[in-house]
Design brief:
Layout: H1 3-15, H2 18-21, H3 29-35, E1 45-50, H4 62-68, E2 73-79, E3 97-98, E4 105-108, H5 118-121, E5 126-130, H6 141-154, E6 158-162, H7 199-208, H8 217-222, E7 224-228, H9 239-242, H10 256-265, E8 274-275, E9 286-289, H11 294-302, E10 309-318, E11 321-330, H12 340-352, H13 363-373, H14 376-385, H15 391-409
Parallel strand pairs: 1-2, 1-5, 2-4, 5-6, 6-7
Antiparallel strand pairs: 3-4, 8-9, 9-11, 10-11
Length: 415
C-alpha cells in the first residue's frame, strides 16, 4: 500500500467526524487545573504519574507545566509501563532513575514494584495522575491508576486525576466481563473489555463503588480523590472530533488507527497463528496468518458477516521488503462491536490449525489468555468446539451484559 492509499484509509475514517471537530474546543484536565491556579495542589509536595501523552491542549508536557509553575512543588515523577517518555519496551522491567530534564527522581511502577511503596510515598503529599487511556480494560495505565489509588488511600494522602477523552468515545461498550478470579495487572477493573468510561470516571467508580478497590471499605470511604474534569468533551465524541493531536500512548499505539484497532484485534492473537500487525506500519489493523493467504483470510472473515467491518487485502513496502496482509477497515462505527472480530479470529485459528491451539495450551497459556479475555465459559467453548465455537451466542450475551453495565455506570459519568 502506498503512503497515499494509507492516508486515504485513515482520512476516510477521520472525515466522518470533521464537521463537529472544527467546532470543538476541548480543555483537558491539566488545562482546567491550570485555570484553577493549581488550587488542589497548593501547599503540597506533588508526585506525578504520567507519560508522553500527558500533555495540555497545546501539546506541552504535564511534567513541564507543573515543574515550571512556581505555585506547584513537584518533587517526584512516577512512570507506568513504557516509562515517563514512552520509549521502554512492553513487558520489560524499568528501573528507578533520575530524570535528566528535570533532575527529579523517577520511580518506576513497572519494575520491581507495580505499586508505590511507603518509602516512595514519604516524599509526597498528593499524587497527580495524567495518563491517556484507550478505553480498553487490558491497557495497563488504568491498572497503575487503581494500584496507586489503593496505596495513596492507605497512606492517608490525596489523589488528583486529570481527566482525558476516551478516544473511542463514551458510548461504546462491548466484550466479555472479567471474572474476579482472573483479575490481574491486565485486568484490574471488572468492566466489559470496552468500558465506555474516561479514566476519571473509572477512578470515580473505584472511589464510590464498594469492592472495586482492593482495600478495606473504611479506607476507601476516607480516601481523598479529586477528579479534574475536562471542559467541552461530550460522550459521543470520537478522538478526531476533539481537535487534539494524537500523541503515541505507547510504542505499539503510534496513531489513532492503532488506538481503535487495539480494541478490535488485541484479543485475537493470544493463541493461534494469527498476527495483528504489531511491529508493522499498521499495528492492530493488519491481519496475517501462517499458512493462509491474505485472500483466504479476508474471505473467511467476510463470510462471518461481522457488523461494521470490511476486510481489504493490501500490499505495501516495509524496510524495503514487499508485504501483504488484510487491513481491518471500519465501515460503520455505530454497528460495530469492536471486540467481536477477535473471537472470530480465535475460531478460525482453531479451525485452521492441525491441532486446536486452545485445547493443546498449557495451564500457563490458558491463565494468561483468561486474564485478558476474562471469562472461563468462552475458554471452555473454544477449547472444546474449536472452529465450531458459537461466537455469536457469546457476543450477543456479552453485548446485553455490557449494556447493563453501562446503565449502572451512569452513576459515575462526568459528562
Amino acid at each position: 500500500m502506498t503512503s497515499w492509499m494509507r492516508i486515504c484509509i485513515v482520512g476516510c475514517l477521520v472525515s466522518l467526524f470533521l464537521p463537529r471537530a472544527a467546532e470543538a474546543r476541548i480543555y483537558l484536565g491539566i488545562d482546567v487545573l491550570a485555570d484553577q491556579g493549581f488550587a488542589p495542589l497548593q501547599g503540597m509536595r506533588v508526585g506525578l504519574l504520567t507519560n508522553p501523552a500527558g500533555v495540555n491542549r497545546d501539546g506541552v508536557s504535564t511534567i513541564d507545566v507543573l515543574n515550571r509553575d512556581p505555585r506547584v512543588n513537584l518533587v517526584a515523577l512516577f512512570g507506568p509501563e513504557h516509562g515517563i517518555y514512552g520509549d521502554e519496551r512492553a513487558n520489560v522491567p524499568i528501573e528507578d532513575r533520575i530524570d535528566p530534564r528535570t533532575n527529579l527522581p523517577v520511580f518506576s511502577l513497572y519494575g520491581r514494584f507495580r505499586r508505590p511503596t511507603p518509602a516512595m510515598l514519604e516524599r509526597i503529599d498528593v499524587m497527580v495522575i495524567d495518563l491517556q487511556d484507550l478505553g480498553v480494560r487490558s491497557y495497563t495505565y488504568v491498572s497503575s491508576m487503581r494500584y496507586v489509588m489503593e496505596e495513596i488511600f492507605k497512606a492517608g494522602k490525596k489523589v488528583v486525576i486529570l481527566d482525558r477523552p476516551n478516544p473511542i468515545g463514551g458510548l461504546k461498550v462491548c466484550g466479555p466481563p472479567l471474572e474476579e478470579r482472573w483479575m490481574s495487572f491486565v485486568g484490574a477493573f471488572r468492566v466489559p473489555y470496552v468500558h465506555g468510561l474516561t479514566i476519571g470516571e473509572l477512578a470515580t467508580m473505584a472511589k464510590n463503588e464498594p469492592g472495586v478497590l482492593q482495600i478495606p471499605d473504611a479506607v476507601r470511604r476516607a480516601g481523598r480523590l479529586t477528579v479534574v474534569p475536562m471542559r467541552g468533551w461530550r460522550r459521543d465524541m470520537m478522538w478526531p472530533e476533539t481537535g487534539l493531536r494524537w500523541i503515541p500512548t505507547s510504542p505499539a499505539i503510534p496513531d489513532l488507527s492503532a488506538a481503535m484497532g487495539y480494541s478490535m484485534t488485541g484479543l485475537g492473537t493470544q493463541l493461534g497463528a494469527f498476527r495483528h500487525g504489531y511491529g508493522t506500519l499498521y499495528p492492530f489493523r493488519l491481519l496475517q496468518h501462517t499458512g493462509r493467504t491474505p485472500e483466504q483470510i479476508a474471505a473467511a472473515l467476510t463470510a462471518r458477516n461481522i457488523p461494521g467491518l470490511e476486510f481489504k487485502v493490501i500490499s505495501f513496502t516495509e524496510n524495503g521488503q514487499p508485504r501483504r496482509g488484510v487491513y481491518v477497515l471500519v465501515s460503520d462505527w455505530n454497528a460495530l462491536r469492536p471486540t467481536e472480530v477477535s473471537f472470530h479470529m480465535m475460531a478460525l485459528a482453531a479451525e485452521w490449525a492441525p491441532n486446536n491451539p486452545f485445547a493443546a495450551a498449557s495451564a500457563g497459556q490458558r491463565d494468561l489468555f483468561l486474564k485478558h479475555v476474562g471469562e472461563t465459559a468462552w475458554w471452555d467453548e473454544i477449547a472444546t468446539r474449536g472452529g465450531q465455537a458459537d461466537v455469536r451466542r457469546f457476543v450477543e450475551r456479552w453485548t446485553r451484559e455490557a449494556q447493563a453495565f453501562q446503565e449502572r455506570s451512569r452513576a459515575w459519568w462526568l459528562y
